[in-house]
Amino acid sequence: MKREDYISWDEYFTGIAMLSGMRSKDPSTQVGACIVDSNNRILSMGYNGFPNGCSDDLFPWAREGSELETKYPFVAHSELNAILNYRGGNLEGSKLYVTLFPCNECAKAIIQAGIKEVIYDSNKYEGTPSVVASMRMFDAAGVKYHQYKRSGRTITMEL
Predict the structure, then answer these.
(1) Distance CA 84, CA 45 (A)
(2) Using one digit for the tens of pLDDT, what is the confidence trace for 47-62?
(3) CB neighbours of 76 closer than 8 A, spacing ≥ 6?
């Protein structure tokens, strides 16, 4: 008889996105993303960080200060990294699991990539112009989105 306490696909892929976010060196916000196809196969993953070749030690991680002294003009978000990391063709019809609701810039990339569903864990910037713009674009482009419903289950791994 099979065991009954195995994790769901949403728990699995949200967990992969969370684990991916743990690779981020950002001291204040770690975001991860996982893109899957309609057969529940992982196509790509990403986390927020600087582009290849841009040293994590030379570019700023600050959140405040003049724009060029902060991380904002330099960091690539997890969703964009997951899209750009994919090398298998197109992402048409895929799903994106992400730990933080996508900003408007990532929403554009998600739509252009053909991703049709976004499952997010947190929406800590809900109501901000960036999130409102993302939702408006997702609605217009027919991209479904919903918040991951936590099961309350504790999953631990020893590494």
Answers:
(1) 9
(2) 999 999 999 999 999 9
(3) 48, 49, 50, 51, 84
What would the two tokens of residue 4 be?
């009954």
Alpha-carbon dihedral 121, 127, 128, 134, rounded to 10 degrees: 60
Q: What are phi and psi of 32, to 5 degrees?
A: -125, 155
CA triplet 151, 32, 137: central angle to 5 degrees?
90
List pLDDT tens digits, range 18-77.
Answer: 999 999 999 999 999 999 999 999 999 999 999 999 999 999 999 999 999 999 999 999
**pTM (whole model) above 0.85:** yes
Supply the residues annotated as catalytic. Answer: 79
Closest CA to 76 of 108, 116, 99, 105: 105
